[in-house]
């Protein structure tokens, strides 16, 4: 039987990096064999810690840019492309982040795509200890946004815009 491979995003604000590293090390046996996407500094530190604890294990890590330098947006892109099933994003609730809009966009995309998402250690503990984490039959419900993407179908938006431009052009040439 083929091994179940979860695609996991790992992100942590500076004040939470140690907490996420400790959580990953604590759960490293459960995390072996899965695919990881991490923002720059967080991923580099986690991979270093995992290699120290398990020097003979080959970890599958994709390390993106640092969050404030575009890594949060790269992570969001991977969520939208279906490359991430779980996002463990340990946020610092006490510090305003200079890239707060990127953080909000990332959390919004996790919700839009209905992926498993958490922002603290206790929720991460509950997720990884859930029988669903290793259940090969479990698949998340992927939202159907067909109605949204087709909301302009059968509406004369383009025709109206073209006609409006023709009117402006006629007005200018008169």
Question: Care to give the gist of this entry?
Answer:
It is built from 8 helices and 5 strands. With 174 residues, it is α/β, with parallel strands linked by helices. It has a single domain (7-143), classed as Rossmann fold (3-Layer(aba) Sandwich), CATH 3.40.50.
Residue fraction in strands: 5-15%
Proper CATH architecture: 3-Layer(aba) Sandwich
Helix content: 40-55%
Kindly report the average pLDDT value.
94
CATH class: Alpha Beta
Describe the largest sheet. Answer: 5 strands, parallel
Overall tally of structural domains:
1
Number of helices: 8
CATH topology: Rossmann fold
The CATH H-level homologous superfamily? Methylglyoxal synthase-like domain
Order of helices and strands: EHHEHEHEHEHHH
Helix/strand structural class: alpha/beta
- What is the spatial order of strands in the main beta sheet? 3-2-1-4-5
Number of strands: 5
- Distance between the first and last residues' Cα: 75 Å
GO molecular function: methylglyoxal synthase activity
Binding site for substrate: 13, 17, 39-42, 66-67, 99
Protein name: Methylglyoxal synthase
Function: Catalyzes the formation of methylglyoxal from dihydroxyacetone phosphate.
């Amino acid at each position: 039987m083929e091994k179940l491979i979860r695609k996991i995003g790992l992100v942590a604000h500076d004040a939470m990096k140690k907490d996420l590293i400790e959580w990953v090390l604590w759960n490293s046996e459960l995390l072996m064999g899965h695919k990881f996407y991490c923002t720059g500094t967080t991923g580099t530190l986690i991979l270093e810690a995992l290699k120290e604890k398990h020097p003979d294990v080959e970890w599958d890590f994709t390390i993106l840019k640092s969050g404030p330098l575009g890594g949060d947006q790269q992570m969001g892109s991977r969520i939208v492309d279906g490359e991430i099933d779980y996002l463990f994003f340990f946020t610092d609730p006490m510090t305003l982040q200079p890239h707060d809009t990127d953080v909000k966009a990332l959390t919004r995309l996790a919700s839009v795509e209905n992926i498993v998402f958490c922002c603290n250690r206790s929720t991460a503990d509950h997720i990884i200890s859930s029988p669903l984490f290793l259940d090969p039959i479990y698949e998340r419900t992927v939202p159907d946004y067909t109605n949204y993407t087709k909301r302009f179908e059968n509406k004369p938006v383009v025709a109206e815009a073209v006609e409006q431009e023709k009117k402006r052009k006629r007005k200018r040439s008169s």
